[in-house]
Design brief:
Blueprint: E1 6-8, H1 21-36, E2 43-46, H2 48-51, H3 54-66, E3 73-79, H4 85-91, H5 94-105, E4 108-114, H6 127-137, E5 140-141, H7 180-183
Amino acid sequence: MKHIIVNIANEWGPQLSSPYTDWINQYEAAITALRNAGYTCPLMIDADDYATNYPELIAASTAVFNSDPLKNVIFDMHAYNQYGFAGMVISGNYLANLAALSASSGMVFVLGEFGPLHSGGASSVTPAQMIDAANAAGIGWLGWAWDENGDEFQMAVTPGFFTGSPSTASTSSQLTTTWGQQIVPFFLSTAKATDFP
């Protein structure tokens, strides 16, 4: 339990609006079931609408968090360029606002998925801009994905294969130029997550 995070129903839910009753009720039920089954690890819960419903996290995450007797929940938002949401995250200070809610409530938020600059996107947020915004807000981040079937979201040229280090990543032929070489060097300057108690 100390070394895992369980993501409950990745990106679950249609686009909902306030008061988010179904999202709250379903995740409260899932938390209860998992805790009753003996899972003590952190539980990750995505906003609905492909994890882009930022207003939902602001308005409804507290109720879900308080339903967990262990208070061991991580709330997750995703931000991709091709859907235009990455630009909204930056321009709307979403990450800073989530960080403020975290400080006042004890909840944890993460930018759990984002990707490379997308040529057909509605916004033009670079990986560096997204990482800088997350770091400035004190929000953890995870880029998608190490292995992604050879598409633009794959970091390693050969799935699962990278023998270099963050210091050599920007020129590594084992990492894709459009994504892997853009994100792995940040591992040098970003605080690493630690195991949860």
